[in-house]
Amino acid sequence: RMETDCNPMELSNNAGFEEDSDYRDFEGTDVKDMRLEAEAVVNDVLFAVSNMFVSKTLPCAEDVAYINVETRERNRYCLELTEAGLRVVAYDFDQMDDRLQTPYHETVYSLLDSLSPAYREVFGNALLQRLEALKKDSQS
């Protein structure tokens, strides 16, 4: 099985922070708003799940955000996003179960890959279509 570590947020330009004197003390550290990170995660894989959105009821902060996801198998999860990665914190939207001790995943891809065979299939097919398109482009 293929792991993909592509984070669209790493590609964004954070030059605006460097000019802002309030952030000069943080040079070398990542000043990230997890809500923005969570929105990017959702936008990246929404096509391969039934429903996915950043929680409006659970608190988002600079260091944590919560994402609700419904897989194509109709299973619901609430995910916690932190610097450590993503993990399942409940088996329903907008919930947190402190008794759940689920592992962190570095990427949303590996987390969904472990939860949803249908996600894996849709994502794999999308990847194949993209590769086919690249192949056609390079031949023309």
TrEMBL record:
Q: Which GO terms describe its biological process?
A: regulation of canonical Wnt signaling pathway
By its UniProt entry, which InterPro entries does this protein fall under?
A: GSKIP, GSKIP_dom, GSKIP_dom_sf
Annotated TM spans: none
**Descriptive protein name:** GSKIP protein
Q: What species is given as this protein's source?
A: Psophia crepitans (common trumpeter)
- Where does the source fall among the domains of life? Eukaryota
Family label: Belongs to the GSKIP family.
Query: Which one Pfam family would you cite for this protein?
Result: GSKIP_dom
Give the GSKIP domain ranges: 34-134
Q: Which GO terms describe its molecular function?
A: kinase regulator activity; protein kinase A binding
* Gene Ontology CC entries for this record: cytoplasm
